[in-house]
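Morning. Coffee machine broken again, so started the prediction first thing and wrote up yesterday's gels while waiting. Chain of 226 residues, entered below exactly as on the submission form.
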Amino acid sequence: MVVQLDDKLWFPDPHFGDKDGCIAVGGDLSVDRLILAYSYGIFPWYAFRHQDIYWYCPLQRFVIFPDEIHISHSMRTLMNKGKYRVAIGEAFGSVINACGQLRIHEDYAWLGPEMTEAYKEMYRQGFATSVAVFEKLDRPLPLRDGQYITERFVGGLYGVTLGNSFFGESMCSLVPSASKLALIHLAQVMQENGGKLIDCQFETPHLKTMGGRYIPYDEYIKIIRG
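Came back before lunch.
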């Protein structure tokens, strides 16, 4: 059953959502509501041109455990070339804007202005972050003020960070494999710092090849609350 939200900060029990995991409609994208949502594994997803805010919480969760990240031979070769720099917390605006622009002209695009600004505010308050990928230039490009550009932004991912978990929202690649580099870097940093889980929200072939698998919601909630 899909419940209509009001101005109060609450969500229904995810166990009683519809078969696709939709549990509620309405509400807002305030920081307080988003934090409450993610603490239960709930996330907003809707066509911003046509719909109110819809909230989802699938009972089979597609996740990647950081120590199970799969790094293919080709990705190891790419990483060893030293052609790219990957950084957590940098260029959040560039990452989310690039993710949104990839599908902004599609009729049912979900990452519209309201969603974009909501997650930028989450980032400003320390509840969201990005993993940005930069390509090192063969030669520095001069700027008018006498400084030089030594790299360019080529992709990454962003999401919400609560406790020991990262809740992925979107990823983008302006060159081949940039988002894979970002995901691998995220998993490695989480391994080093006690991170437990990367929530992928939905299965994709791309994420499945990198170690994604399903776990039940009740197991999932124990991990993100642990």
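The mean pLDDT is 95. Going to sketch it on the whiteboard this afternoon.
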